[in-house]
Amino acid sequence: MSLVLTPLYFALMVFLWPKRANVVALLGLGVQFGLTLYTAFWTPLPRRITLGDWGAPLGIELWLSPLSLLFCLLSSAVFLGVGLYANTAYKNNHKERSRFFVLAFFLSLGLTLLFVSDDVFNLYVALEIVGLSAIGLSALRPTKEALRASLTYLFTTLVGSGAYLLGVALLYGEYGVLSLDLLSKALISSPTSNIAFGLMAAGLILKTALFPLHFWLPKAHANATSPVSALLSGLVIKGSFFLLYRLWFDGGLGNETLGHGLGILGGVGVLYASVLALLQTKLKRIIAYSTVAQIGYLFLVFGLVKFDDSLVPREGILLLALAHGLAKAGMFLAAGALVYVHKKDDLVTLQGVGSYAPLSVFSFGIAAVSIMGLPPSLGFFGKWLLLLSAFEHREMIVAGVFIAGGVLSAGYMFRPLSVFFAKPTHTLSLQRPPLWLELPALGLSLGALALGFFTSHILDYAHG
Amino acid sequence: MVNTFLPLVLVLVSLGVGVSIFFLKEEAFKTRTTLNLSGAIIKLLLISVMLLGVIEGRHYHFEATLVHGVKFVLRADALALLFGSLSALLWLLTTVYAIGYLENSPNRSRFFGFFSLCVMSSVGIALSGNLFTFFIFYELLTLTTYPLVIHRQSEESIKAGKIYLLYTIGGGVLLLVATVWLYSITGAMDFAYGGYLEAFEQTHALELYILFFLFLGAFGVKAALVGLHGWLPRAMVAPAPVSALLHAVAVVKAGAFGVVRLVYDVYGITLSYALHLLAPLMVLSCATILFGSIIALFQDDLKKRLAYSTVSQVSYILLGVSLFGPLGTIGGLVHLVNQGLMKITLFFCAGNFAETYNIKKVSQMAGLGAKMPLTSFAFTVGALGMIGLPPLAGFVSKWYLGLGAIEAGFGWVLGVLVASSLLNAAYFLPVVYTLWFAKSTESFVPHIAFHPRAETRLLLLVPPLLTAVLVVGLGLFASHDLSALSWVRLITRLEYQ
């Protein structure tokens, strides 16, 4: 329980003492990370927590499974990294800093709730908290583009959660239960439940930005400030994806036709977004389109499970999601430090930036290794499992998408890298980014790389 | 007795050295040099320990499960040690050379950091016990050599880096596809003497046939098979020690070594023969041998000439592999070592000419022999070795390749060998002639500082002289128990048992 409440508590603290935000916030993020670690490794899992002794079907229940804890770990680790970065980035702006941290704690609260809740309405509440705090964050620096992007973001996220809520209402009217567990037992295939799930899925897909519903993402993610982009790309979309994943596999709501459709959209999305990423001229746009492409991979799982009923595709997706969370957050933070030198993220201005911030280029490169799915990163092992599953069933088209996506990602990742490595265009001695702006990115990216060696441990843990 | 520890340490040494060097300040010359040299020496010692151990029948094997039965395996078998000892030895020499070469140039920490990581990858490739591990290190090699290729950061080198990536990432993708595909058929992937695919000959013959060419494409990129060699001459913009390492041990050898593993320890020589895979390989390697030599004739830029010569010479290894029969195998494998030593000598020398007097073209080299007699001498030894003059190392390779061709019943291959030797002579002898006998037309002004009585910096001079001595030694003492040839004979016995 304290997992959920800690962020709330610290959100209040930061709100009350905005001037001390640096100490309070970092303490809060540290405590959160520690608590998650403790819960994940030193308490019995899986376990069900009933709030105020009110059990299902009426009360609120939390379901702590190894899977949800893995995502909590991802989230608290990313928050810690981003928090360290933000603390330095907003050093001279107390107001912005305290606003950032209040919203970030709410986001953390929402995500944690999303990962551990077990009934569809409670999950809706979590989804709304996540959505609203994410919008608040994306509008943190009120430039014209950022405000416009966050308005679109607001609109889509409301439509998304509205559709989801409508689905929940339909399900509740049909079965009279909200708990996922009870729902999966009661569920029978009927037009109502199909429509209900269709609505829920549509809402979540919109929020996760699956092609072609991705239109809002590049703008929102590229125009936000770097720590916010890191949170949005690394974590927020994982929230809605995780929810869909749980409804599909734990709630028993998934079906083959829809899975096939999602798989196809995912595949097309990978290729489409990768090509667009290749065409961008701004660094953060490239990273944002790469996120859209990576989301495409995640949705391939719904198509793959159709013919591979083993756990392999699901494990692959789990690894990819974790890897992307760490690597993409690291990459956005690294980009933030690189942009710090010139204050602009056009590739042309960033030429030779490696001479000023070699450490950040290094972090960017390591994160790119995971995004491209090269060994020995965590991303590689996710891709390996999915590719293996595709080959074992001779699904050559799926395999082809993976291969093509991999090649394209190498293209759009090495393009900025070779720009960073080039000779600087002018010999001005520019200011190097402060060390604490560079280290968090390194930590997160190295995490994505090094965890590859522990793949089998992660999978063993996820299986309980 | 199985030792699990040593193979891992061998890889970790270079990793540790590489990572710590990144954190050193540019000016920390002494610390960096100490780290570099002690890393290289420790590595060489460890390899020697393992060589002796393998002779005594010890096993060195480290494994860890990564995911679902896929293991990370480092294993020191005889073949691994052949490549491993070559790379450890040449790393030491190249490190010494690079320290001399890069004196006072910028970004040395970055350079030596990646340099170490690159060597880690190549030792990893040597010790890989299965295709999966091989793939990991093969990709790491791409990633760690890229920053070395573009080290100078000029527009030309960034462009070369781009082309290098284009080729090698393509190769990496092919390797990934082939590895996954093969694993989905066999469910096993550990290298084994004589191969492990025989059981699938009946059921999956067509797929195995296709897969072989996917693998060949993947390795062919790095081994610079004709058509896939486009990156190699362009990558010449890299600093001389990098070119030396790339051509002698790291990149092209990784490709060639991959083919060796593929034919002997994945498919098995018997199955490769039965599936008619060796003939296409033979044709390809012969084509590459002739192509590389012919193009080399027309290069005035010394490093480019050497680059095309590499294209040609590496395919000798593949030719040996494609000849069914122990003698061909011996010729190919021994050339893995011999080519490495000869080519690194030549590149060291080319680097010395360029670094000392800024001479990069063959046509400018007239009279240089008198100015730099020792370097020129080493160059001459390397060049004559390449041509295959007895008793130098290159002769041993060519002799066994010729015998192997006759044994396998391909008389025309002898013709290719003779033609290629003539071509080798045609593009190397003019260089040697210009060095020693042509009349000097220009005055040489050194543009680096060195001791007035030496011909160049000492650190640049010693490595090529040592490798030149080895080129002579490997030829003269080929039949000695500790020579590369004897070791290769041991491997061949294991493969054909």
Overall shape of chain B: it is globular
Portion of residues in beta strands of chain B equals under 5%
Rg value of chain A: 21 Å
DSSP strand count of chain A: 2
Note the overall shape of chain A: globular
The string of secondary-structure elements of chain B, in order, is EHHEEHHHHHHHHHHHHHHHHHH
Distance between the termini of chain B: 23 Å
Main sheet makeup of chain B: 3 strands, mixed
Number of helices of chain B: 20
Gap between N and C termini of chain A, in Å?
20 Å
Outline the low-pLDDT stretches of chain B.
none
The average pLDDT of chain A is 88
Rg of chain B? 21 Å
Helix/strand structural class of chain A: mainly alpha
User: Can you tell me the residue ranges of chain A where pLDDT is under 50 for at least 5 consecutive residues?
Assistant: none
The largest pleated sheet of chain A is described as: 2 strands, antiparallel
Number of helices, where a helix is a run of at least 4 consecutive DSSP H or I residues of chain A: 18
Supply the key terms.
heterodimer; A: 464 residues; mainly alpha; two-stranded antiparallel ribbon; 18 helices; globular; B: 497 residues; 3-stranded mixed beta sheet; 20 helices; 3 strands; ND/Mrp_TM (chain B); transmembrane helix (chain B); CPA3_Na-H_Antiporter_D (chain B); transmembrane (chain B); NADH:quinone oxidoreductase/Mrp antiporter transmembrane domain-containing protein (chain B)
Describe the model.
The complex is a heterodimer of chains A (464) and B (497). Chain A contains 18 helices and 2 strands. By secondary structure, chain A is mostly helical. Chain A is globular and about 70 Å long. The mean pLDDT of chain A is 88. A 3-stranded mixed beta sheet of chain B has the order 1-2-3. Chain B starts with a strand and ends with a helix.
